[in-house]
């Protein structure tokens, strides 16, 4: 690849992070950091292709482990496991009745995952989702941190404000200009100060609570995906001048539609009712277009339409939305195309 990749880093392990490589960083920048490390005599980073199907498969097995443990904790109740992402989940351990027992259960879960999947897991135990999440990040990649309610504010106080979910670079910079770099620093602001003076609005009131370790977010045992999609960043910007170049783009669009239908069927979805596309030009200008169908399109095998018919619908609708980008209707400057993606929404 020699630093010429057009994608971004989806994730980086701890060895790579020591070189400054981070998620969402352009591959070209990550390669430069790796080369700088190599020239210093350190081991260069290894760049691996994304294998999302494998990640989802392993994630499913780990979620099964989590549900089994929680079911044993509360055999008569519902296994309260919220899958927040492919590699993150929240568990309800409250039936155990004590933080000591919760710690033992967390260690058993870690041991079970390591035995079955040969993977480490970091766990945080706290009185709410906010504390548990931050605690889980404290001792990665194989940590177990327990924060009791009476210790929550002291635990948060020395940490950078960026650890609070929802605090991004802009809010971090805004607070830093006022001398608030840690959670403890930021606690000096009143609700009105965060909401009105710093112009954070409703988020300012929420941030006031989070800075104090307070979070009322419920555990959601069932999370329904709002959309399923796939996109491709091309190795080089794809021109649209010739028929051959335009066919290469429409062929890529068809392949992307195929990936979307795989994810739909693999995710157990029954139907969709909306198709959208995203097109990113050279220069990073991005446009999206969508269509809502008259009725849901069934995805399940054996249904009147089924996966094959659903695929044809996705291919047709995405192509219909995409064609104007190959001429002056949606692309008056005839720009080359850097990325295209397809997404289906309004899922059942």
Can you tell me about this structure?
The chain has 348 residues and is of the alpha+beta class. It has 12 helices and 8 strands. The strands form 3 sheets. Strands 5-8-6-7 form a 4-stranded antiparallel β-sheet, covered by helices on one side. A two-stranded antiparallel ribbon has the order 1-2. α5 links the parallel β3 and β4. α9 runs antiparallel to α10. The model has no long low-confidence stretch (mean pLDDT 89).
Give the topology, please.
Layout: H1 14-17, H2 27-39, H3 52-73, E1 81-85, E2 88-91, H4 99-117, E3 123-125, H5 129-136, E4 144-146, H6 152-156, H7 169-177, H8 183-186, H9 191-197, H10 201-211, E5 227-238, H11 243-266, E6 271-281, E7 286-298, H12 306-322, E8 337-345
What letter string, H or E per element, gives the SSE order? HHHEEHEHEHHHHHEHEEHE
Tell me the span between the first and last alpha carbons. Answer: 40 Å
Mean pLDDT over the residues: 89
CATH architecture annotation name of the largest domain:
2-Layer Sandwich
Query: How many strand elements?
Result: 8
Short description:
With 348 residues, this protein is an alpha+beta fold.
List key phrases describing it.
Alpha-Beta Plaits, two-stranded antiparallel ribbon, 8 strands, 348 residues, globular, DNA polymerase, domain 1
